[in-house]
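S1.2 Input.
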Amino acid sequence: MSNQIKVNELPVPAHFDPDRVGQVWRVPYQQRAGEAQAWAKDHQIWPASQDKLKIALLLIDVQNTFCLPDFELYVTGRSGSGAIDDNRRLAGFIYRNLHRISKISLTMDTHQAVQVFHAIYLVDDHGQHPDPLTMVSVEDIISQRWRFNPAVANSLNISPEYGQEQLLHYTRQLQANQKYDLTIWPYHAMLGGIGQALVSAIEEAVFFHTIARNSQAGFIVKGSNPFTESYSAIGPEVLEDSRGNPLGEKTDQVLRLLLDSDALIVAGQAKSHCVAWTIEDLLKELQSIDQNLARKIYLLEDCSSPVVIPDIVDYTEPAEAAYHRFAKAGMHLVRSTETIDSWPDWGA
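S1.3 Output.
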């Protein structure tokens, strides 16, 4: 990246209050737009289209449902305040590097109630649904400890028989592909709900960047298929149903973002799930194109946390193992508190 113009980090705009990152508010768009335009003029920030180096920032599922304590799947990490701390650092990183980040793209986990990982989808012999965070294995389906709920078949335009057949196939595919067992998550990221929305502090930072750099943010919506989980922004956990019909297809949006950029910076939630699986799938795609492209990827370690639910499950070690694999493949593990110019291979 030898043609990078060396520019000091920008100051953080006065409107950003780190203590409010854990709150929800309405972003005053018109006011922020005027401030962003003035900010760009005062700091001589040019439109992103003029960047000599194209630097992309991919934010994965930075949504209320995962990032705020009062919401359904708050990612605490082991510290107990993981996602809030991550987003405080992430917002600061965006503002300080506003003049260098050419494009920001965001993934949006998006669900409805009747989906394979929500309680209503399954019942036991007594018609009871599984509790949130129940792990459902192939053996659980074979033994009929849990089975497809026939009452929701009509709303999915399938037969109860197909629903049960597909559930067995699905759990078998997860096992065969060495994925996590089917997890029954609390209802979360519900389409149109406040939980699906971006964290206010990050939404505001992204909007400010859009206006200051004249660079439209990109959005990747995932997770709407009722028959499969979609941790990865690249494609669903299982691609075909029990009869060989497609459940969904992979998207090339993340790959194109990488190919169109000189560097791709990644952050978001959760480090152990949607971030890890997105990067894993991207790495697989690079193996068939050019493995050296992995060196263009920078993972903000201090802007992502693993799922940790005390006394139930702790995905810290799997997350760290995944990041170790990514680093071994050529990706860079970096911190938002470091200047970009100090990152490994930056400027090489």
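S1.4 Remarks. The chain has a mean pLDDT of 94.
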